[in-house]
Write a structure and sequence with these properties.
Layout: E1 5-9, H1 13-25, E2 29-33, H2 36-46, E3 50-54, H3 62-74, E4 83-85
Parallel strand pairs: 1-2, 1-3, 3-4
Helix pairs in contact: 2-3
Length: 102
């Protein structure tokens, strides 16, 4: 695992570009995914030191993605807790993120 890698999981191109610039300026290697299925594959393959997850992404939302990645945190193939983001324009009913075991 490279200590300076981040996986940005976001489907809004302007936000991806903004996050990418900030992390690259901080000397991170940046991986991006615009949907949950691609994100899961990249997370398991690249094992980034940080993961930034938009809760409302296509194909597999952020909550479902966290649920599927959770066993990998338990066996420590992924070491950093994920950072959750949401750029929702309208508030949605609260969802409980499965963060207790991270």
């Amino acid at each position: 695992m490279n200590k300076k890698t981040v996986l940005i999981i976001e489907d809004e191109p302007a936000l991806v570009e903004m996050y990418q610039k900030k992390f690259k300026d901080a000397k991170y290697t940046v991986y991006t995914a615009g949907d949950g299925i691609t994100a899961e594959k990249l997370a398991l393959e690249k094992k980034p030191s940080a993961i930034l997850i938009d809760l409302f992404i296509p194909q597999k939302d952020g909550i479902a993605l966290l649920e599927s990645l959770r066993p990998n945190y338990r066996i420590q193939s992924l070491l950093s807790p994920p950072i959750l983001t949401s750029q929702a324009k309208k508030p949605k009913p609260a969802q409980k993120a499965p963060t207790a075991s991270y």
